[in-house]
Amino acid sequence: MKRKLLCALLCVSTVAATMMTGCGNSSESTKEETKEDVSDTSSETEKTDATKETQDVKETEMTQEELIEAAKAEGTLRVYGVHSYLEKAAAAFQEKYGITVEWTQLGETELMDKVSTECQAGISDGADLIFAQDGARISADLITPGYIHQWSSDRLGALTGNSDMSLSVFEYSAKAFIYNNEKTGETPYLTNIWMVTDPQYKGFFSMKDPTAEGVNFNFLTMLTSDENAAKMAEAYKEYYGKDITLTTDNAGYEFIKMMYENGVVLGTSDTKISEAIGAKGQSDTWVGFFAVQRFATAAEKDLALAMNTEMSPFVGWYYPIYSIILENAQNKNAAKLFVEYMLSEEGWSFWSENVGDYNANTSLPYAGDISFEDWKKIAIGEDLDYVYKNRAVVEDFISSIQ
User: Fold this and answer.
1) Does domain 3-10+173-318 fall into CATH 3.40.190.10?
2) pLDDT band at 297 (very low <50, low <70, confident <90, very high)
3) Does the reported pTM lie above 0.90?
């Protein structure tokens, strides 16, 4: 396949992120007191930090039997999510409990825009529960305005290690640098992240356009943190044999700049990218950054895909997919029961064979040879507070170099 064909398969799309404020809760619900002084006069910027302490609204926890009865007494549970597997889980949940579930699959940007609009307008028949993955927009569009219902569960806390369910993690998903191994065979081909900036491989690297998927923007943002940028600088010296000369703030920004200058091919779908990268019979060895779960269908689609788990300084990254009950939800108990169901072996069964997906309930099975603990050693993870504070800067930077 020639480069023209790959580019044709991977057309570029753009989105506009919209921030909504001021609805769903009373204005008092977004205010908080500090532990030291209730008359604290710290700035609004400090008060809207993505990791700010929430109000103490701990409810009396129901037993599972009580929760089931309360959930059945409510109406139709409305769920929005970004993954098709959720529809299968919703159908199984409905059959199990007799609770009608209205399921809507949306792209991440569309989902966040829709939920923000519904919360701002106080729509009563909007989503009760959402499954979303763009941490930066969740922080800006849902946490800061006070649209997230705060609740806790000691029962789920025992499974996940965190009883605060206000912004609970359902699963962690992984993306990695993956290449076509038809010509490389068993020899690891991609050994260093800076390879995709090397002029001799110009135009042979593809990833989903960050403006079409926020988690890719979050990944690029994480590269600019002091810790990760230091690792990137070390990897640069390892690959190019010399210290990095900076024209930007740090090695993370420098990588982003060099990646774009080296002709990164931006696509609109991880699935399409994996199929284009892994197609057999190509004269060149292509590299892509996409969801590890694409390995699940590689054999079925006869794709030649491989990942080097010893790549420097890391093989990819992982990020949370959150289950979020909205403050203006009309069916909160049904939503809580669904969250509980998704952390059970039955609920997880629709994902359990996906390589690169890990349930927040670590006792549940995972596919592949790499445990989540091992994955965290070879990949970088999302820092919600960092992406919340810095993504806009990275977005502006990328706009300035395109």
Assistant:
1) yes
2) confident
3) no
